[in-house]
Amino acid sequence: MLSRTLVLKVAEMPAFKNWIKRSRLTQGLIKRFIAGEDVETALQITRQLNQEGFLVALDYLGEDTQRVEDAEQAANQYIALLEHIDRNGVKACISIKLTQLGLDLGMDVARRNLARVLDSACRLNNFVWIDMESSKHTQQILDLFCEMFPDYPNSGTVLQSYLYRTPDDLERLLQLGARVRLVKGAYAEPRNVAYPDKRSVDRQFKIQMERLLERGKEPAIATHDTRLIAHAKRYAAKLGLEKSQYEFQLLYGISRELQKQLVAEGYRTLIYVPYGEQWYPYFSRRLAERPANLYFILRNLFRK
Ligand SMILES: Cc1cc2nc3c(=O)[nH]c(=O)nc-3n(C[C@H](O)[C@H](O)[C@H](O)COP(=O)(O)OP(=O)(O)OC[C@H]3O[C@@H](n4cnc5c(N)ncnc54)[C@H](O)[C@@H]3O)c2cc1C
Known about the structure:
The chain has helices spanning 4-12, 14-22, 27-33, 39-51, 68-88, 107-123, 135-148, 166-176, 198-215, 226-239, 256-264, 280-289, 291-303; strands at residues 55-60, 92-96, 128-130, 155-160, 179-183, 220-222, 247-251, 269-275. By secondary structure, the protein is α/β, with parallel strands linked by helices. The chain has two domains: 1-34 and 288-304, no CATH class; 39-278, Alpha-Beta Barrel (TIM Barrel), CATH 3.20.20.220. Helix 5 packs parallel to helix 6, helix 9 packs parallel to helix 10 (226-239) and helix 12 packs across helix 13. The radius of gyration is 19 Å and the shape is globular. Residues 131-132, 158, 160, 183-187, 222-225, 249-251, 254-255, 272, 286, 289-290, 293 line the site of flavin-adenine dinucleotide (FAD).
């Protein structure tokens, strides 16, 4: 079985990257995961998802920004997006990455840009999720989030069940009273920081999910894993939670039947919708999660 690290390494190879971006054969798969390159298409998809009963989180794709001007520009794009959401009356919040807002250029750059985005979200009565990135950023992301949260309670962040540190981080966020989205984790991490095997990651997800359902504020359970979703439903019912008191979150284009089924059963369900020109790193993480996606691509690559 191909490891996540290997797939992400292959995905970084310039020849592979160029082929993926240019080939007609990969466009279908890209379209499945990415809602388009412009905001109009993303809003159109959001409207459609709203009509089907879903909430939406819009991610204007981008990460690892290396210039201060680009980080400011990314914040501007998010502010414009919040205004578009407001003007168009769609039900959508936003999900952002702090490295896109300049975290690698210093905490001050990220803090300044994040504050501008959070101010706009406050003014427009919207909500901001702060995505979790690779483990070299975890501490800074959580520190900045915890620093800003008291002034901006319209924000929440993400914890990854594969990290050994997550039980402590969850306690910190539960005590703060912030919304938490629990995910398994999508980055290639070394064995000394993250569980290397799926069974442990799933077991940790279940444990942290139970804690989150017991004590969290509007917990967000972000997975396509049907066994964990079934457990969440049972556990939440046992705790006496209404279906509106917690949220399932799934990625655009993944497990579409499951998405529809959750809405049909009356569960609050949010679809994470990524769009923008900088889609490649997000797309390569989707490949790495599921080798079948990569096999599909490689089959087409060698057919030519
Ligand atoms: C709303 C949302 C937000 C997220 N935000 C973050 C974040 O901020 N930081 C972060 O590190 N990770 C994030 N993730 C990704 C997450 O960490 C996992 O990598 C991803 O959700 C796949 O794991 P899974 O829980 O679905 O379980 P898995 O056990 O990987 O998958 C369960 C089933 O889902 C389906 N599936 C999963 N992935 C794919 C795929 N790529 N293609 C096709 N089918 C698939 C398959 O049927 C699979 O059997 C987010 C995920 C969601 C749903």
